[in-house]
Amino acid sequence: MSMSFDQYMKDMVQPMRDELTRLGIEELRTVEEVEAKLPGAEGTALVVVNSVCGCAAGQARPGVARALENEVTPDHLFTVFAGQDKEATAQAREYFAPYPPSSPSIALMKDGELVHFIERHQIENRSAEEIAADLVGAFNQYCK
Question: N or C: which end of the chain has fewer CB within 10 A?
Answer without folding.
Answer: N
